[in-house]
UniProtKB/TrEMBL annotation:
Its EC number is 4.1.1.17. It comes from the Eukaryota. The modification N6-(pyridoxal phosphate)lysine is found at K52. PANTHER family: ARGININE/DIAMINOPIMELATE/ORNITHINE DECARBOXYLASE, ORNITHINE DECARBOXYLASE 1-RELATED. Keywords: Lyase, Polyamine biosynthesis, Pyridoxal phosphate. Pathway: Amine and polyamine biosynthesis; putrescine biosynthesis via L-ornithine pathway; putrescine from L-ornithine: step 1/1. Residues 29-261 form the Orn/DAP/Arg decarboxylase 2 N-terminal domain. One of its GO terms (biological process) is putrescine biosynthetic process from arginine, via ornithine. It comes from Chironomus riparius. This is ornithine decarboxylase.
Length: 394
């Protein structure tokens, strides 16, 4: 079964019940394939999936069974992963700014690995989770990324990072490694190599304080819309590891989010209305939007393809060939900011037709709201569910 076939089946079945809501299709085989691709390109690096990117329980279960770890940023994310019977040692609490209650929760549940980038956070860790295995997050920005993170997180790698190593020692904390995140969604592949070189320097510096660091965490940022891209990152990562950490007992992890999720999910929506501007520009209104699952569309629209499922009455009775027209796709709420895609050339479609937006698995459903009363659509699955799930059925 492919996505188009499954979507058509769901649309027809829903139609017979009078249901015309948008829905999602999540292809779990895609997630497995992504893992396979990861192992082939970066065999020495254990991915710790960034739960925030798409917290669908079936994605988490598939990755758990593949043997990945998890990057959690909050108490709820940690709880969600522990409920899947994942050992706490497979979790990294990768938020450098932790609420005290979340920190206490981590301590209580035996989640030990966590990142930090300030002295204040170290003091908090010392007080509420003194046995934690702390990982120093440094700032190392890609030249360009879809979401830059350096302005908010990461210690400056020269002076400040070294000062923090010293403070770890003074507080008698168990410093185990260094992490970075170059920014989400980058094709600056080389930056990973330079960042790993920087990590090596901090490893050497930490020896002065008696620390034998052994964890390198290269963060996230990997594009996932095209499997072939991973080998570009791998080239720079693997060679940097080879030149810096050759034959040492080092564990290397990463925190990919969108890499695993983006291509796994499609959003299926219906054209609720079409109207024309005076100049012939076509405006479509669909039943999901940027307050729903299209919140990150501005960053990702370059990767999104739209497939049409013809269901309109007009089309059934006409042999007219669709014409390419300059179009705008609006979301379903009353906000004028709820605009999904502007000024694109697309084949003209009709009210009642359905659009499948692919590559929508990253930072989509997790950000959706029910603003204006439009609730999140239902999730359907392709591929075998694992764990507590059953075979995909619709
Ligand atoms: C968001 C985030 C990730 C995942 O980033 P992607 O670009 O989706 O791979 C990993 N680590 C941290 C600390 C993050 O904040």
């Amino acid at each position: 079964m492919d996505i188009l076939k499954l979507a058509t089946t769901i649309i027809d079945r829903n139609h017979s019940y009078g249901i015309d809501d948008p829905f999602y299709i999540l292809d779990l085989n895609q997630v497995k394939q992504k893992y396979q691709n990861w192992i082939e390109n970066l065999p020495q690096i254990i991915p710790h999936y960034a739960v925030k990117c798409n917290d669908d329980e079936n994605i988490l279960n598939v990755l758990k069974n593949c043997g990945t770890g998890f990057d959690c940023a909050s108490k709820n994310e940690i709880e969600k992963i522990l409920k899947l019977y994942v050992d706490p040692s497979r979790i990294i609490f990768a938020h450098t700014v932790k609420q005290v209650s979340h920190l206490k929760f981590a301590a209580e549940k035996g989640v030990e690995k966590m990142t930090f980038d300030t002295e204040a956070e170290l003091q908090k860790i010392k007080q509420f989770h003194p046995k934690a295995k702390v990982v120093l997050r440094i700032r190392f920005d890609a030249a360009k990324s879809l979401f830059e993170l350096g302005s908010k997180f990461g210690a400056e790698p020269k002076m400040e990072a070294r000062r923090l190593v010293k403070i770890c020692k003074e507080l008698e904390l168990n410093l185990i490694g260094v992490s970075f995140h170059v920014g989400s969604g980058t094709v600056d592949y080389e930056v990973f190599g330079h960042a790993i070189d920087e990590v090596r320097e901090i490893f050497d510096y930490a020896k002065n304080y008696g620390y034998e660091l052994h964890l390198v965490d290269i963060g996230g940022g990997f594009m996932g819309h095209d499997d072939k891209l991973l080998k570009n990152y791998a080239y720079f990562i693997n060679s940097a590891i080879e030149r810096n950490f050759n034959d040492e007992n080092i564990k290397i992890i990463a925190e990919p989010g969108q890499y695993f999720a983006i291509s796994a999910m499609s959003i299926v929506t219906q054209i609720v209305l079409k109207k024309y501007s005076q100049n012939g520009h076509v405006h479509y209104f669909i039943n999901d939007g940027v307050y729903g699952s299209f919140r990150s569309i501005y960053s990702y629209n370059q990767f999104v393809n739209v497939t049409v499922i013809k269901k309109s009455k007009i089309h059934e009775n006409s042999s007219k060939i669709a014409e390419q027209k300059l179009s705008t796709i609006w979301g379903c709420t009353c906000s004028s900011r709820d605009k999904i895609i502007e000024n694109i050339m697309m084949n003209e479609v009709e009210i009642g037709d359905w659009l499948i937006f692919n590559n929508m698995g990253a930072y989509s459903t997790v950000l959706s709201t029910d603003f204006n009363g439009f609730a999140r659509g239902k999730m359907y699955y392709l591929g075998m569910k694992v764990g507590r799930g059953k075979l995909a059925s619709i």
